[in-house]
Design a protein that fits this description.
Elements (H helix, E strand, L loop, with lengths): L1 H28 L6 E6 L1 E5 L2 E16 L5 E6 L6 E2 L4 E5 L2 H36 L5 H33 L2 E3 L4 E3 L9 E2 L7 E16 H12 L5 E5 L11 E10 L4 E8 L11 E7 L4 E7 L4 E3 L2 E7 L5 E5 L1 E4 L4 E6 L6 E5 L11 E4 L5
Parallel strand pairs: 1-22
Antiparallel strand pairs: 1-21, 2-15, 3-10, 3-14, 4-6, 4-9, 5-8, 6-7, 8-10, 10-13, 11-14, 12-13, 15-20, 16-17, 17-18, 17-21, 19-20
Helix pairs in contact: 2-3
Length: about 375
């Protein structure tokens, strides 16, 4: 009985192993799904030759607000980062000492005018006495000198009054231009003066400038286009790779060349209604020039390189992968110009190239190319 039971158990184990092996064999024989890839169609479009430069954003106008008189900062009447209007009151320095000085000078002027009136009376009396030959010439000369001194004192005091009123006006710091104001560098209650440095800075942001260096060779090419009646169009590429939607125009070319780099500084003006461009920002400048020509474009990420040169992986109408040798040149933005090896409409793989091999069937998802 014991031997028979052992034999039955062994038969069950062998049968189970056989069934398990058959299942694994069937699973191994099931075909794997085709790898998924992303493709982009080769597009044909008209483009112009471009040149890319590194530029710096510059405010059209930039003013540092400074204290012109000394005193404790009494008021700050703006919110940092807001737009301000020309003539808008921004800071107030304590005015009481300057008002007191004005009152004192006005009192001295009244006193000097009284002294002038007395000097005029003495001069008239001395003149009459000399005319009747009952007075001396010396007394008349003294009266004349007192009269002149009184007039001079009034003139001096009026000049002091004008200066004091000017200093009082300097206690109110207003915006000399319309623009956006930055942060305040001094808090209310601090003592400020001409040596305190800028209290805040105002920049005019719309329109705004972008300055960039251009080599002499590139300048000659631009001159040729200008003579042919074609002015270059200037665009900006933002930090995320997208193009700024407002084109610019060159409005200044420097009159001197940088001897260290043999470049000329060029400045372009751009609309900036959304304040997207900020003074001091580093940015890429793209200049389109010359006559437009038709070209085939593919994304840069579609290009692969081996010892034989550049190639792309093309997905044909049967969804099979094919290696295609190409010749390319730099195109607009993140695009490349195809000089040889592709035709319009063909689909090149941009994502998933590491998962496929030539002749393999793939599952392709087409996306739109971005410039």
């Amino acid at each position: 009985m014991r031997v028979s039971a052992v034999r039955q158990l062994a038969a069950v184990v062998i049968a189970a192993a056989s069934i398990s092996g058959c299942g694994q064999s069937q699973q191994a024989e099931a075909p794997a799904p085709p790898p998924a890839v992303t493709v982009v169609a080769v597009v044909k479009q008209d483009i112009k030759p471009t040149a890319t430069f590194t530029g710096r954003v510059q405010a059209r106008d930039k003013v540092e607000l400074r204290a012109r008189v000394e005193g404790f900062l009494q008021k700050r009447l703006f919110t940092e980062g807001q737009d301000v209007k020309e003539g808008e009151l921004l800071f107030v320095i304590e005015q009481e000492p300057y008002k007191a000085t004005i009152s004192e000078i006005k009192a001295n002027i009244e006193k000097a005018q009284a002294q002038l009136s007395l000097a005029n009376v003495e001069f008239e009396r001395a003149s009459q006495l000399v005319a009747r030959q009952t007075g001396t010439q010396q007394r008349l000369d003294e009266a004349t000198a007192k009269q002149a001194d009184a007039r001079g004192e009034i003139a001096r005091l009026k000049a002091s009054l004008e200066k004091a009123e000017l200093q009082l006006s300097y206690t109110e710091i207003t915006a000399p231009l319309a623009g956006r104001i930055g942060r305040a560098t001094v808090s209310v209650g601090n003592f400020v003066g001409p040596q305190s440095g800028p209290l805040a800075t105002i920049v005019r942001q719309d329109p705004i400038y972008v300055s960039f260096p251009v080599t002499q060779r590139e300048m000659l090419e631009v001159r040729k286009d200008e003579k042919a009646g074609e002015n270059p169009t200037i665009y900006l590429k933002l930090a995320d790779g997208t193009r700024y939607d407002q084109p610019g125009k060159v409005n200044f070319v420097d009159v001197t060349v940088n001897p260290g780099t043999d470049t000329v500084q060029v400045r372009a003006q751009f609309p900036n209604p959304d304040r997207l461009l900020v003074d001091g920002q580093l940015i890429s400048v793209v200049a389109e020039e010359g006559t437009a020509r038709t070209a085939l474009l593919i994304p840069q990420r579609a290009i692969q390189i081996d010892q034989a040169g550049a190639f792309v992986l093309v997905v044909d109408s049967a969804n099979k992968v094919e290696v295609r040798r190409v010749e390319v040149d730099q195109g607009p933005g993140s695009q490349l110009i195809v000089l040889k090896g592709l035709t319009a409409g063909e689909k090149v793989i941009t994502e998933g190239v590491q998962k496929v091999r030539p002749g393999q069937v793939v599952e392709a998802t087409e996306v739109k190319s971005e410039v």
